[in-house]
Specification:
- Helices cover 38% and strands 14% of the residues.
- The relative contact order is 0.22.
- The structure holds flavin mononucleotide (FMN).
- Flavin mononucleotide (FMN) binds next to strand 3.
- The site of flavin mononucleotide (FMN) has 8 residues, from strand 3.
Length: 192
């Protein structure tokens, strides 16, 4: 196989989700974060709506405290769980950067929201693959308040926009093996 294919295939197959608490606290240079964001910007986009938006936190603990506080404000009384609050507050303690990925609806209504979500997902994957190529560990989370409307308004996005996830980036001492459960043959229908 040609070297470009084998390089990209190794990066794609080696990308693994590594939980933020399994990161080691080492900092990623901001220039590398900017470089992987530039890869995100080259995702395919229907009608050039380029719907991906990224909020970069150089200090993950700042976002995590805000995330925990959002949780507190929206779980009054018996719904509040101190362990959940604590987990949210300390989730990023060992990450280097947090990037919130958001789909911002463009002004071409003929392009359905799912296409904007698809384009933003491609942008996120570009970013994750760039991270992998730089030996940066990553974790895409939709946990906590990520998908709640309160998070969207906290980030100052509109109702028609979609928070796609919280991306934790850092370094790890160990990178786990990947696995797939459903055989690839079951996912592909070759029509002759
Ligand atoms: C849209 C999306 C949201 C995800 N949200 C979470 C999450 O909230 N919590 C979690 O543990 N993993 C989450 N993941 C990561 C998956 O669990 C992970 O990709 C899966 O286990 C496969 O592992 P791999 O990425 O190492 O191949 C998410 C992945 C995607 C694509």
């Amino acid at each position: 196989m040609d070297t470009t294919f084998s390089t990209i295939s190794a990066v794609i197959k080696n990308r693994r989700s590594i939980k933020a608490f399994a990161m080691n606290g080492n900092k990623i240079p901001n220039g590398q974060i900017a470089a992987i964001l530039e890869l995100a910007d080259w995702a395919p986009t229907h009608g050039y709506t380029e719907p991906w938006r990224f909020i970069v936190y150089e200090n993950p603990q700042e976002f995590c405290l805000q995330h925990a506080e959002l949780y507190r404000q929206n779980s009054m009384g018996d719904n509040f769980n101190a362990t959940t609050y604590n987990n949210l507050q300390h989730q990023g303690d060992k990450a280097s950067h947090i990037i919130i990925a958001v789909m911002k609806r463009g002004n071409l209504p003929k392009i359905p929201a799912f296409e904007e979500i698809a384009a933003t997902s491609c942008a996120i994957q570009n970013l994750l693959l760039g991270a992998t190529a730089l030996n940066i560990a990553s974790f895409w989370s939709t946990g906590g308040m990520a998908l709640k409307p309160e998070m969207k308004s906290f980030l100052q996005f509109a109702e028609e926009d979609q928070v796609m996830g919280i991306l934790y980036l850092g370094y790890a001492d160990e990178y786990p093996e990947g696995k797939r459960i459903i055989p690839i043959e079951e996912k592909i229908n070759w029509v002759k």
